[in-house]
Every structure is written in C-alpha cells, then in structure tokens.
Design a protein that fits this description.
By secondary structure, the chain is mainly alpha-helical. The protein is 78% helix and 0% strand. It is built from 7 helices and no strands.
C-alpha cells in the first residue's frame, strides 16, 4: 500500500509573517477606501475646469500635473494594490503557491518602490527650489536645501533598511522547507 505524501509542518515564520501582513493589508485597504471616498466627495465639489485652467497657467512639471489631475484614479489604484496585498497575505497564510508568489513579488516591488520614491521626492525638491526667487525668501531657500539633504539621507537609509528586511523575508520564504509547505518543491520519485 502506498503511503500518502507527508505534509510539511507549517513554519511559525510564515504564519506570523502572513498574520502581520494581513493586519497591515486590512489597515491599508481601510485607508485606501477612505481616500477613494474623500477623493470622490471632495473632488466632486471642486470646479474641475477652473482648477485645470489655473494649472495650465502655472509652470508645473508634467508628472505633478498628471498626479493632480488623476487623484481619484490614484486612490482607486492604491485600493486595488492594497486588496491584492491582502489577498496575497491570506494566500500565504493558507499556504497557497499563488500566495507565496504574490507575496514574494510584493516584497521585491515594495523594496524597489522605496528607491523610486527617493527619485520622486528629489524631483519635487528640485522643482520647488527652481521656482522664481521671491523677495525675503533667501533664508527659506537655505532651510529648504538643508531639509532636502536631511530628507534624502533619511529616505536612503529607510529604503536600504526596508530592502534588507524585504530581502530577508524573501530569503526565508525561499528556503526549501518553507517552499515545501506551498508545494513548490517536487520530491523525486
């Protein structure tokens, strides 16, 4: 009589990681729902044509203009990403292969997004500092330059810390005994 294949013992690391991620996914989803509602309610009360007309007269970088004109779409996109992360976290807890793949993808993309955010923040500081000089604002420009330096240093440190953390999580999830919990390792017959 053939023996049934042995089921891998669930690791505490996966269970704890999944439960913490589910909690974070729920919070992010609730926050995203509030953002979508706020965008629909608040932007529904704004004369969009007047705002777009005003923005057309300003020297606003194209990416900033795009963000300002697509706030509702961005909020809905954040909601979709939050729901996808929540689903991947539940899949991870239930030891589904798609949950493993989805979670690993979120870890890698999350680390990369932190570095992309640095570029976006730096571009914003560059745009603000390139605005025409105003009388009496020289001291504020100096303070802004110092703030830029401090902000970028903080962002680089936090992006590196999160990249290491996400890398460690992915490394743990890629261990053979953990992958076996998800049916990702095939044993030779």
């Amino acid at each position: 009589m053939a023996r049934a294949p042995s089921v891998a013992t669930p690791s505490a690391f996966v269970t704890v990681t999944a439960k913490v991620s589910i909690a974070l996914g729920l919070l992010a989803t609730l926050y995203a729902v509030v953002q979508v509602i706020a965008a629909l309610v608040l932007l529904g009360q704004v004369d969009t044509d007047a705002v777009l007309g005003f923005l057309a007269t300003q020297q606003i970088p194209a990416p900033a203009l795009w963000v300002l004109t697509h706030l509702t779409m961005i909020a809905v996109g954040f909601l979709a990403v939050s729901l996808a992360f929540l689903a991947a976290s539940v899949g991870l807890l239930r030891r589904r292969a798609w949950g493993w793949w989805g979670f690993v993808l979120f870890m890698v993309l999350g680390a990369a997004a932190n570095f992309a955010g640095i570029a976006a923040i730096d571009a914003t500081f560059s745009w603000v500092q390139a605005l025409p000089a105003q009388p009496g604002l020289a001291q504020m420009q100096q303070e802004l330059a110092a703030l830029r330096l401090l902000t970028l240093a903080t962002l680089w440190v936090s992006a590196l810390v999160f990249a290491v953390l996400h890398g460690l999580v992915v490394w743990q999830l890629c261990r053979p005994e953990v992958r076996a919990e998800f049916g990702l390792l095939r044993t030779p017959r």
